[in-house]
Design a protein that fits this description.
268 residues, alpha/beta, Rossmann fold, six-stranded mixed sheet, 12 helices, binds adenosine-5'-triphosphate, binds magnesium ion
Length: 268
C-alpha cells in the first residue's frame, strides 16, 4: 500500500509535560478513507495538528510522500497546500472578519490573481450554501455554520489530504450527510481523507482503514474489518465494538455486515 504521510517514532508533549504521543509510527495509506479513533485525550487532535505542521514533534519525524517535513515558512506553506486540516473547534480556525474573507484567505496567500481567488471562493461558498451569509462575521454563526465555513476554507485550497477532526460534531443530520457526501466525492478523485470520530458505527460503515490511538501509540491499525473484529483490543483502548458487529455476533451470522442494508439481507 502506497503511503502519503509517514510518521516515524514521533513523540510529542505540550509544554514539556507528560508525553501525549511517544514512539508513534504509522504509514497513512494514500487515497483511502481513514478513521482515527481513540478515547478522549488519546491524542487524536494532537496527531492531526502534527500532520499539517501546526505542531512540531519533540522526537521523530514526519514525511510527506517520502520528503521530511520542512518547518520553515516556505516549507509549511507548501505543506498546508497539500494537507488541509479542519480543526475540532472552529473558533480556533476562524481568523477573518467575514465568511467570504475566511474562505478566500488561504487562496489569497497562494499565487492566484484576484479574479481567480474571487471565482474559486464564490464556487466554494455556493457549494456549501454559504453565499447568503458571506458578509456575516463567522464568529457570530452557529457551531454547525462555523464548521461549514471552516470546511469550505479548507476545500478551497484543494488539498490532497483532508484531515478533519470530529467533522460532524455539532452538525445536524442533513449537513453531516452532506459533509460525508463531499468526503466521498473527494476520495473518488483520489484524495486521502482522515477523520477522527467517536462514532464507531459510522467509522465501521465508512472507513477503508482504521487507526486506533492508545497510550500515546498506534494501538491498532488495518482494515475496518480487521480492527473492529478485535473486541478485546478495542475494549482496552476504551472503545466499543460497532453495534452491527455486536448484533451479527450475537445472532451467529457468518458474515459481518458493514451497514444496515447488508445486515437486513443477512437476517432475511
Ligand atoms: N494545548 C494544550 N496544552 C496542553 N495540553 C494539551 C493541549 N491540548 C491537548 N492537551 C493534552 O494532550 C492530551 C491529548 O489531547 P488531544 O486533544 O490530542 O486528545 P483527543 O484524542 O483529541 O481527545 P478528544 O476525543 O477529547 O478530542 C490530553 O491529555 C490533553 O489534556
Ligand atoms: Mg480531539
Amino acid at each position: 500500500m502506497k503511503s502519503v504521510i509517514d510518521l516515524k517514532n514521533v513523540g510529542y508533549s505540550y509544554q514539556n509535560k507528560e508525553e501525549v504521543l511517544n514512539g508513534l509510527s504509522i504509514s497513512i495509506p494514500e487515497g483511502k478513507k481513514i478513521a482515527l479513533l481513540g478515547a478522549n485525550g488519546a491524542g487524536k487532535s494532537t496527531l492531526m495538528l502534527l500532520l499539517n505542521g501546526v505542531l512540531k514533534p519533540n522526537e521523530g519525524q514526519l514525511f510527506y510522500k517520502g520528503e521530511p517535513y520542512n518547518y520553515k515558512r516556505k516549507g509549511l506553506r507548501a505543506l498546508r497546500q497539500k494537507v488541509g486540516v479542519l480543526f475540532q473547534e472552529p473558533d480556533s480556525q476562524i481568523i477573518a472578519p467575514t465568511v467570504y474573507e475566511e474562505v478566500a484567505f488561504g487562496l489569497s496567500n497562494l499565487d492566484f490573481d484576484k479574479e481567480t481567488v474571487r471565482k474559486k471562493t464564490d464556487a466554494v461558498l455556493e457549494c456549501f450554501y454559504l453565499t447568503d451569509i458571506q458578509y456575516k462575521n463567522p464568529h457570530h454563526l452557529s457551531v454547525g455554520q462555523k464548521k461549514r465555513v471552516c470546511f469550505a476554507s479548507v476545500l478551497a485550497m484543494a488539498p490532497d489530504v483532508i484531515v478533519a477532526d470530529e467533522p460532524t460534531s455539532g452538525l445536524d443530520h442533513p449537513y453531516a450527510q452532506q459533509m460525508f457526501k463531499e468526503f466521498d466525492f473527494l476520495n473518488a478523485q483520489g484524495k486521502t481523507i482522515i477523520i477522527s470520530t467517536h462514532d464507531m458505527n459510522h467509522a465501521y460503515e465508512w472507513a477503508d482503514y482504521v487507526i486506533v490511538l492508545h497510550k500515546g501509540k498506534v494501538w491498532q491499525c488495518g482494515s475496518a474489518d480487521e480492527v473492529f473484529a478485535n473486541e478485546a483490543a478495542l475494549k482496552e483502548a476504551g472503545l466499543p465494538q460497532p453495534l452491527l458487529l455486536q448484533l451479527a455476533k450475537y445472532l451467529g451470522l457468518k458474515e459481518m455486515p458493514r451497514d444496515v442494508e447488508s445486515f437486513k439481507q443477512l437476517i432475511h
